[in-house]
Write a structure and sequence with these properties.
The protein is an alpha+beta fold. It contains 24 helices and 22 strands. It has a six-stranded mixed sheet, sandwiched between helices. It has a four-stranded antiparallel sheet with strand order 2-1-4-5, covered by helices on one side. It has a four-stranded antiparallel sheet with strand order 15-22-17-20. The longest helix has 53 residues, at 255-307.
Amino acid sequence: MVAKSPTPTSFPSSVKAPGSASTPVEKHPSDSLVANATSNTVYLLAYYARLLKGNRWLVFIIMLGLAGHVAFYILYPLGFKYIFDVVVPAKDWGLLTKVAILLTVFLGLGAVGSYLQLKYTSILGGRVLDGLRSSMVNKLTVLPVGYFTNIESVDVLSRFSGDSEKLEASMTRALPSLLETVLLILGSLLVMFFIDWRLAIAGTLLVPLGFFAYAVVAPREDLLNSNSRRLKNEMLASVEDFLHSWLIIRAFGRNEFFKKRFDRVNSQYYKTSSDYSYYVNMTPVLSDYIMNGIMAAIVIIGSVLSINGTLTIGSLIGAFAILRKIADCSSKLSKHYFVFINATRPCKRIEKLLTEPEVRTVGRVGVELPAIQHDICLQNVSFGYLADRPIIREVDLLLKAGRSVAIVGPSGSGKSTLLKLMMSLIQPQTGDILYDGISGKDVSVTSIASYFSNVLQESHLFRGSIAENIRYGKADASDEDVQLAATHAEIHDFIVTLPKGYETIVSHSGTTLSGGQRQRIAIARALLKDASVILLDEPTSMLDAVTEDSINKLIAKLAAKRTVILVSHRLASSRNFDQIVVVDRGRIAESGSFGELISRNGYYKNLWEKQHGFMVEHDGTMAVAPERLKLIPIFAKLDNDSLEELCGHFATEVFEPGMLVIQQGDKGEKFYITVRGRLEVFITDASGVETKLAVLGDGDHFGEVALLRSVPRTASLRAITHVGCLSLSRSRFERLTESHPEVLEALEQAMLARSRN
């Protein structure tokens, strides 16, 4: 079993230089570079030391191999000196054989050392990176909801790819090489002093000169590295947008728009990454030329000493071999340090993820509740993602076990936030939530999670087979259990028609399945978990009208047999629920059964009348009833016969998420009524910046002026969900008014009255 490295803790990222606060000290630019390099080196060494804890035996084997490898390179030049100064002048073949055997033994020991170092460094690196990635994944599972709403997915993924790769290169390749080169340089200089102190002093000049190239290039390289990573993430995000939006791009024929946006980012990334690559590659080349020039000068000096008789030929050859190793090590030292220190920013990004505040995972006293037996009670609960902008305001709500509860209200009223609070995904800022009378602060989050089976708005599927997606609700479920859950969700018959049945592979977006099929698989997953409560968060908002109707019938069956909490802005899906809770701007506006709420003539009844009065046929065709049309102010004074005829002139139009219904600046030709779905109203300024104005939902209407005259649209409308609309064109309206002039007169009076108001 591979041991997991502990999650690294925070280390200081900078070292403050001492100095007087009242007497500022002028610093040379190189001082800052040295200070940053020192600070980052200390940071990385401390960070890696923490990561390597628990792997002491591997570190010991690596150091043992490193010692043998270094010893060979330090000692073999002495053999050359001995051969040329003693063996060759003596012409002693026996002594030459002994020296050759000894050098072969050293070579073998060095080879074994190199093998141990390389082999176990790879094992150590893989083990540490495996533990680090596992720690990051574990961290993602306990981060609060706000973290995922405020960060790009590409930014998170870069921690597992580019950042981890740079850390691995720094820790498992650059750091051991740095240690090796430092030991080789120190050992070689000691041997040089043994051979000739003058050449040894000259050799020490090679070491600092090896860092000259790094000192020149490092500041520019660090800036380019940061910009290159940022632009790479933007480029990848642009591609990710295309993968998620290709249908809309094709539908609108806006390929050029996407290409231009991508090319703009890609060209910036190309230039920055090219500059970065140039500086990275230039450093070792510049260092090599400096090293070769200095080494040539030292060899010439040694040759002069040898000609003058103050240096033996063996000493010159041995010194030359050592000088080559020092020069090579000095050049590599800057290169390896460059790779080593380049991991500072990635390490800090990984560390930042690992030190993010976590959600609460256990209660204060660790109470474990097997299931909800009596009720869930919200007491004076308030919450807002921003402290000064509450979404939920002083809510008191009692939800009894065994009953079906629908939480309804307009978009943005706080319905889904209430669900997140119940599931303990977010914590109340004030008030408390009680589970069977026990404070949620005392109950473990895992226990609370076990209460609920969830069906979310977007019916997310994981990459894998259909069976795996359903079995996610209960890992140890048998095939029979999976099929039974699918049968109850009314998706089994479809699954068995697929060539591979339950083993059919689907992507995370489930693009090979329809919206209704994905939603039924999500319902099967929730049923298989068989929790105390099934939570349904806008389960039909992304579906077309016909599929929505079939899913609503399935939800009605579920609600008759178990505790169900439904969140929806569609009131029709909640009509037969035991309790309907109406939420408006974060507060409970009303609560009761359907009959009770309708009889009160309050907020719920107004919402009901706004959404009621539309018909949807099995083929998706929509129609509006005359009494519903009469609720629209511009048609309020029409008689029933006129309304009846007007209803027949409306046409059905359907828009997928992301599609434009109205384009700002286009001439208006139609009046629309939203039957189902949500649209956002926005304006676009001259620079292309969008400003959101409003969100329209079921029963809302827009574009009345288009029935009277063709004028440019003052705003754009875009579908947020699957949208079904009824549209009335001006040409059809004009044909109607030819036989019913009173309709035109009524509309003109209504528009005039509205303009006065």
